[in-house]
Amino acid sequence: MSHRQKALEYANTMRESFLEQLKDFVRIPSISTDPEKKAEMQAAAEWITAKLRDLGLREISIIPTEGHPVVYGECQCADRPNAPTVLIYGHYDVQPSEPDDLWKSPPFEATVRGENLYGRGASDMKGQVAATLFAVESILKNGKMPVNVKFMIEGEEEIGSPNLNSFMESHKELLACDVALNPDSGMIAADLPTITYALRGLAYFELRVYGPEHDLHSGLFGGVVHNPAQVISELIAGMHDQDGRITLPGFYDRVRPLSEEERAELAKLPMDEEYYKRQTGVPALYGEKGFTPVERVGARPSLDVNGLYSGFTGQGQKTVIPSWAMAKISTRLVPDQDPAAVFDQLKQYLMEKAPKTVRWELIQMSYGAASISDIHHPATQALANAFVSVWGKPPVYKREGGSIPVVGNMQRILGVESVLTGFGLSDDNIHGPNEKLHLPTWYKGIQTLVHFFYNYGEQG
Amino acid sequence: MSHRQKALEYANTMRESFLEQLKDFVRIPSISTDPEKKAEMQAAAEWITAKLRDLGLREISIIPTEGHPVVYGECQCADRPNAPTVLIYGHYDVQPSEPDDLWKSPPFEATVRGENLYGRGASDMKGQVAATLFAVESILKNGKMPVNVKFMIEGEEEIGSPNLNSFMESHKELLACDVALNPDSGMIAADLPTITYALRGLAYFELRVYGPEHDLHSGLFGGVVHNPAQVISELIAGMHDQDGRITLPGFYDRVRPLSEEERAELAKLPMDEEYYKRQTGVPALYGEKGFTPVERVGARPSLDVNGLYSGFTGQGQKTVIPSWAMAKISTRLVPDQDPAAVFDQLKQYLMEKAPKTVRWELIQMSYGAASISDIHHPATQALANAFVSVWGKPPVYKREGGSIPVVGNMQRILGVESVLTGFGLSDDNIHGPNEKLHLPTWYKGIQTLVHFFYNYGEQG
């Protein structure tokens, strides 16, 4: 029996043990946003280091940051010199569990019902982190690793990874690798193995429009003052044209066009108009003309008003001309848009369009670049072939509309591409009550990762 | 000496006494919105009835309503049969005094500093009610009245007069009269006696736009969902055209055009662009093309967003596509617009313009008709001539942009026109701290009212 076969068999026989170990990990309420949970955060970090120690990895440490620490460990122990190195990214922190009364079993009890393990973090992403550990274990217990691996498991993903960039900046050599494996992105469905190859970036703003010095009586002044709530509405309305295109000057100049190959690939995804209507409950979809819904979400930029406020918003009526109005506005960006340039484009738009009847202010809140990886990258191919081995079919390639800033930040800081996948499903209810992990998919995921390491080792 | 002369002289010699009596009235904290002030409301009502009793009026009573009572008293005692009857409208309630620490002397102490009496209600409108009582006193102490008078002094004006309409409905005969005198409208400046001959009406709505069933992740759905905050902005933006005209279908159909005579009259008011810029602090005015600011505020309808709300409005950022958006929208109407028709016009606009990507709801909050009175009405002429006698010049005629619903309601319920005037000044700071009454203007006001009653008696 080949080494690979032995590892796969090991993984199969260890199912019960893997599940029990994962339950222990899920039982730790490592809620990063809760200042009362410092000890639990430490416990979760220690659970991982104990596991890394069992596997015989080196350089194992819980490295402090200004916030929660990063767990590190490596195995520079490939079966041949010059084997490639995979940096495995993950996070050990979880979202708060509230509202607890909506959970059918306590969120930190790790309960199996039917084919699923229920518990906060089971899917996002303790199950995914554990799957990488168990895949590495399956290989090491039966011989040498086909690639070198490094683990970088952070504790602040659910609060926006405020200290990860500086951690990566100051540990560039330690983290040197050929590719990053990020299993924090899930599968569209249990029968649709999925590789996410692109993520949208984000640029977030607050726009404020100032009119009269204080709220005015709408009878005494209605007709001579340009109402700031009206002005902000006019400005927002002008940010899209009739075809649903964003009008900020130069906004599309650097948008990377979709290739025919990509469009054909995206067309395979089971996410048509009906899918999005079902997901959102809207009576009809909206968006940029000339693109399918899945293209609009994945491969085209968008601009949304995330919040709007002006004047009197309580019960009943108050006849006031508000003195100011506010909008939270964010853009989702695609390669090769520059988030910093979008600030200038929005500013330019406002300079051209804002009337002389008001004053305005544009506040930049945050930004992160989009990322895209080559689906012909050797690691992506290794993963795709792994999916074929386990699922009997190639994965779908998905562009993700959301933003996972660590991917772009790794590209920028470490100069490394990420392969994004994962064995969570879209109905896992991550961040919500009754989060679950589909165990048959998870077991197949461990097998897939075993294949991935071998495939990449052979190719690399 | 004529009877008129004697009355005027009496008013002159009684200045100190009138002031002392007014101070007593102002000292009563008759705050209608404060449930703790029931006794003080009663005391203010009794202060008036005591005064009416001193004057020898008849049918004096404090008539209960569902809220605060109405004070009534009449003098069907004109010097000749068939003399006209003037219904004097006023209110004895005042606004709360908060914030008290901004008052230089306690709000219910009635303090004279320089030429002014300071105290809550001194200008709005205890001083005005008292002026009518003292004018009637001046006449009655020196002979018979040239007209019949009826006093209807309510206690709920500052809380929107919720019970006055039903009071008028059920007391139509008691309140029968030839004209109403409403001294709740002030003067533009101490040297500009002012008659307000038109008031704008009001129609108030809440518009709600519903999109997805719950807030969405703006990354996962940005580009396929029509954001309700964007939709409401587009709808609001479309409610005015490039010339500042309101686009609701049929909105201007019944707007009574301004006559050349009126435009000439309004042009005399010292309320130019600079005036409105100073009053509001806006960098530039806005409004319907082809009309001066004072015409736009007084004689043209307006539409304002009074409040706007959607999504996340707190500190920081949240990348959400809001599930709904809300706008409070009100229109100020002019003769002969029908407030009920405006609801249909706004609904029609929404049916035509709201996209199929959302659901919407329009809630009618309240409405009141505009009112306008003939400046050639005998009572208006009588008042204008009275101003000439006291100020040495005719009054300016002003259209008021705000709404005083009692005027339209009296027209509708009692079938009677109102003459609106008053001796408060625009810098009296009514509703604010340090409300004051300019005493030299007030004394001239009492003289003016004496002339008015004689003039109207002679004409009527």
TrEMBL record, chains A, B:
Pfam family, one: M20_dimer
Classification via InterPro entries: Cyt/Met_Dipeptidase, Peptidase_M20, Peptidase_M20_dimer
Gene Ontology BP, a term: proteolysis
Domain (Peptidase M20 dimerisation) ranges: 197-357
Top-level taxonomic group: Bacteria
GO molecular function: metal ion binding; peptidase activity
Keywords: Hydrolase, Metal-binding, Protease
Name this polypeptide is given: Peptidase M20 dimerisation domain-containing protein
Species, as recorded: Bellilinea caldifistulae
